[in-house]
Specification:
eight-stranded mixed sheet; FAD/NAD(P)-binding domain; 425 residues; binds flavin-adenine dinucleotide
């Protein structure tokens, strides 16, 4: 078994960008070469800006190369929860931004000819408990009624047309959701940005940042120092000390994934005949899908812990058990890949983007960043160019996580809380 993300292992390797010169002045500096940073870089370069991206590790090292590859039209919180928090009109605007986000992703893939298996196969929201199907029914009524969106309810009696599992009590299909190969997409996005003149610096951690006035900053890396007119922090769950204001507002929660050996088309036709992206309805949910080469990818939070090889292996065993509970027919199937990554959870599980002390930032995608990080990169390019309305999330208060001073000591307690909620609801 490989403890490396399947996506990065099966995507063409990009050039080594760890030897580039760092120094002098740049118009825009972006911290983080994931979907947010690379999309922002590309869109800013399209406007003619000189852009440098600084990445602590390599392109796609963070969540962008480690996720499930589900680009869904739903928010991290349910639509009905959003309505009770923000009122119908605001909740609708937020939800529709997720629909726009999948469009942004699709457009970018087409415009830049990124070969990444993007397909709008739809998303299956599976009811893990009978009462959860009632919730899905209510959501479907609002979505297909007042919002006019393409959703469909699948009762338990018809579920075999969608999934080869007896574990669920019905489902709701979101037809416009998509799946893609995120390794090919992220590396392809980096290539596209580089073609437009963006300079990418790998192995270039920004260790210190100092404000020089307005939005102008000095960035210090071990390989050199630069001055930038504008800086975008795009570090998601990997946000560290130099960006303290953002760091204490984000809980880096481990999420883990296993990928099976190739199963062949016939077996995949039995598991997920319509190749939908799928997730369960528990608080500690599982998500799964078929990969382009016919493996099953199965992920979830498994444990509230960070990610390293030992932690990933432990989570992998929990995920294997969960996978065989959903699909007992896979009990003898080999697992080829197991890895983990950090999800950038905000207190309210909403996107947070704006400017603080002259620093631009976009993060807090809370597990729904494949489409939204890509979209926010584009929107932040507009926002930084002087169009505040491009950033829909600009007025949402970004609250500090109580007791969060750096290392996320509180994760096991939060995990216990959500496990308890799943038992009782
Ligand atoms: C296991 C897992 C599964 C997921 N599944 C899904 C899914 O199926 N669908 C979905 O929509 N979302 C999913 N997500 C979330 C999604 O992947 C993220 O929201 C999205 O990739 C965030 O992109 P980003 O560019 O903002 O951040 P990242 O891709 O995390 O990039 C941030 C980068 O910043 C770099 N960095 C940090 N600090 C510094 C510094 N000081 N100097 C230089 N560089 C620095 C890091 O090395 C990192 O590469 C998942 C996340 C994980 C971890």
């Amino acid at each position: 078994m490989k403890f490396t993300p399947y996506w990065l292992d099966t995507a063409p390797q990009g050039p080594d960008r760890s030897g580039s010169d760092i120094g002098g002045r740049v118009e825009v500096a972006i911290i983080g070469a994931g979907m947010t940073g690379l999309s922002a870089a590309l869109h800013l370069a399209r406007k003619g800006a000189s852009v440098h991206v600084f990445e602590r590790d390599t392109v796609g090292f963070g969540a962008s190369g480690r996720n499930g590859g589900l680009a869904t039209t739903g928010m991290s919180i349910g639509f009905r929860d959003a309505v009770s928090r923000y009122g119908f009109d605001t909740a609708k605007a937020y939800l529709l931004d997720y629909h726009d986000a999948v469009d942004t992703l699709e457009q970018l893939v087409a415009d830049e000819s990124i070969d990444c298996d993007f397909a709008r196969t739809g998303k299956l929201n599976l009811a893990s408990k009978p009462a959860h199907f009632d919730g899905l029914r209510k959501t479907h009524e609002i979505m297909s009624g007042r919002l006019g969106l393409e959703t469909r309810l699948v009762p338990k009696s018809e579920l075999s047309s969608e999934i080869g599992s007896g574990s669920f009590h019905g489902a709701m299909v979101e037809a416009r959701s998509a799946g893609l190969h995120v390794g090919k997409f992220t590396r392809g996005l980096a290539e596209a940005a580089a073609r437009l003149g963006v300079t990418l610096h790998e192995q270039a951690p920004v260790e210190k940042i100092g404000r020089l006035g307005g939005t102008k900053h000095r960035l210090v890396t071990p390989r050199g120092t630069v001055e930038a007119e504008q800086v975008l922090v795009a570090t998601s769950g990997y946000t560290g000390r130099p960006f303290r204001w953002q760091q204490v507002r984000i809980a880096p929660v481990g999420s883990f994934i296993i990928v099976t050996e190739p199963l062949g088309e016939d077996v995949c036709d039995m598991l997920l005949p319509n190749r939908r992206m799928a997730s369960t309805s528990l608080n500690l949910l599982n998500y799964f899908r078929i990969t382009p080469d016919h493996r099953l990818l199965f992920g979830g939070r498994a444990r509230f812990a960070g990610s390293d090889q030992q932690s990933d292996a432990k989570s992998g065993r929990i995920l294997h058990k969960a996978m065989t509970e959903v699909f007992p027919q896979l009990s003898k199937t080999r697992v080829d890949y197991c890895w983990g990554g950090l999800v950038d959870m905000s207190m309210d599980r909403m996107v947070h983007a704006g400017e603080q002390d002259g620093l631009f930032y976009s993060l807090g995608y809370s597990g729904h960043g494949v489409q939204m990080a890509t979209h926010m990169g584009k929107q932040m390019a507009e926002y930084m160019n002087g169009t505040p309305t491009a950033n829909l999330w600009r007025d949402l208060p970004f609250k500090r996580i109580p007791g969060h001073f750096g290392p996320p000591w509180f994760l096991p307690f939060a995990g216990g809380y959500y496990k308890f909620k799943d038992l009782i609801k």
